[in-house]
Amino acid sequence: MRRLLLWFAGHAWLASHVPRWGFARRGVKRFMPGEEFSSGLPAAAVAHYEEVIAASAGIRSEISVKPTQLGLDIDPAAAYSNLERLADTAARSASFVWLDMEGSAYTDATLDLYVRLRAGHRNTGICLQAYLHRTAADVARLLPLEPAIRLVKGAYAEPREIAFGSRHDVDANYLALCAFVMTEVKRKRLRLVLGTHDVRLIEQVWRFGEALDMQRSQIEINMLYGIRTDEQVKLARAGFAMKVLIAYGDAWYAWYLRRLAERPANVLFALRQILP
Ligand SMILES: Cc1cc2nc3c(=O)[nH]c(=O)nc-3n(C[C@H](O)[C@H](O)[C@H](O)COP(=O)(O)OP(=O)(O)OC[C@H]3O[C@@H](n4cnc5c(N)ncnc54)[C@H](O)[C@@H]3O)c2cc1C
Would you say 217 and 244 are in contact if contact means Cβ atoms under 8 Å apart? Predict the structure, then answer.
């Protein structure tokens, strides 16, 4: 099921047609409040993100962008200058820019963008995926930059040669990566954000923090809008630093399919919205 949904997610014809079907749009509502910024959500371009930064000044918001949306596929130099422009705008509003991590075809290019960007822009971070074998080495490469890393399990269909295949191995690597960097988090030489809804894993990471006499507020957690909202509230009330990532925009098709692939029960939920 997961592989099939991820195949649908990468299919160009489906991506251009499905979003126009009214019944498909109904199914997506649970995870995205809408397609327009006016309804709580923006679209995808540098000028637009600048508007978002300006519009959300004062609420300590952060933006998260896919490098291919900024042109990485077409011209990496242009993507870099777009990112720089966004990072400068964000800095003026005391905001922060995250680079999403896409499929493995973009991992090297995204890391290269980040290494260049971080040198002059402290208000930038990068997402790394625990399912990739290479991630420990990538973390080690980034540590001297005192980076900001959002650690996720990984949402794309990757071959076994480069990615852990079983949930157990991905979780074990996630935990190992957190153990590896936790003293750096404590010393504030690394901003680590746990990008996961896996509350059991978060508790295990917190045990490392507790052992190092850290405060709950030093553990940052990000979850997606509409997923485990009850846990988001509980963790925030318990004192953890919790933020919710709200995705929006009309290019929702592949994003939505990846959310369905993460939890088969979502497929039933989506079908219930679609069927009369
Ligand atoms: C803030 C944030 C940013 C992210 N950015 C990226 C990125 O840049 N690149 C990337 O590859 N991936 C990204 N992801 C997605 C990530 O890689 C995982 O695919 C996704 O978070 C599901 O894995 P999990 O860590 O929640 O753990 P899982 O083990 O998949 O889930 C743990 C539990 O959470 C619940 N849950 C998880 N997913 C869903 C869902 N879709 N619907 C309903 N319940 C669910 C279930 O109860 C499940 O048992 C991001 C995730 C988050 C939270």
Answer: no
Return the SS3 of 7: helix
Question: Going from the N-terminus, what domains does the chain have, and what CATH number goes with each?
Answer: 33-251 (3.20.20.220)
- The CA 263 to ligand 1 mean position distance, Å, reads 9
Q: Is the pLDDT of residue 92 over 70?
A: yes
**Whole-angstrom distance, CA of residue 216 vs CA of residue 200:** 15
87 residue type, one letter: A
**What are 96's two structure tokens?**
């922060």
Residues 229, 218: Cα–Cα separation, whole Å: 21
pLDDT digits (tens, 9 = 90+) for 138-163: 999 999 999 999 999 999 999 999 99
Nearest CA to ligand 1 atom 19: 155
Best substitution site from 198, 240, 258 to test ligand 1's pocket, by max atoms within 8 Å of Cβ?
A: 198
Residue 211, pLDDT > 60, answer: yes
